[in-house]
Amino acid sequence: MWSLMLHNILPSLEPADFKVLKVLDRYLGRFEYVPIEVIESRVRLSPKKVMKSLMKLSEIKAVIKGGAGNRGYRLTYLGLDLLAVNLLAKKEIITHLGPPIGVGKESEIYLAKLREGPEAAIKFYRIGRISFQKVVRVRDYLTDEANWLIRSKTAAEREYKALKDLMRFTRHVPKVFGWSKHAVVMEYLQGVELHKLRDLPKPREVLMDLLSVLRVAYKQLGIVHGDLSEYNVIVSEGSWEPYIIDWPQYLYIHDPRHEDVLRRDVWNLIKFFKRRYGVNVELDAALRYVKGESYGEWETP
Ligand SMILES: Nc1ncnc2c1ncn2[C@@H]1O[C@H](COP(=O)(O)OP(=O)(O)O)[C@@H](O)[C@H]1O
Ligand SMILES: [Mg+2]
Question: Which of 45, 60, 76 represents a domain boundary (last residue)?
Answer without folding.
Answer: 76
